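Mods, move this if it's the wrong board.
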Amino acid sequence: MGSAMSDGMAARARKEMRANPRYEWLGELPRSHVRRILAKSRLNVVPSRIEGGANVVSEAITASVPILASRIDGNVGILGADYPGLFAVGDTQQLARLLARAESDREYLGVLRDRSKKLAPLFDPTREEKSWADLISELFLIESE
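Not the wrong board. Structure tokens:
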């Protein structure tokens, strides 16, 4: 899911769909569709090369969906440096091994799912609103001193 960053990337995605029956690129979709699809997913792969913190990572966490993600600052910041589903940026061999493991090893997939469940409270909207309110209050106190 998601729009292609270039026409070339879109062409490669369409070519992959023709060659690989297990690959389907849906393109850009409304957020409500993305959330429904993600909630039914068994695994979420976030192969970003550069990103501050992908919304799809937090969406997968709140849906208790296991995640495989590239080891970039945004993903590591959200998932933790010791997250067992991280792979080196651009390392398709390592990603393939993790995908095969997630497909064949229920215990590993369960570990990834459990980690998502443990992180979910961090994305509670009420907690987030309170954290923002606390920060804003703290900034106003600092400014008025």
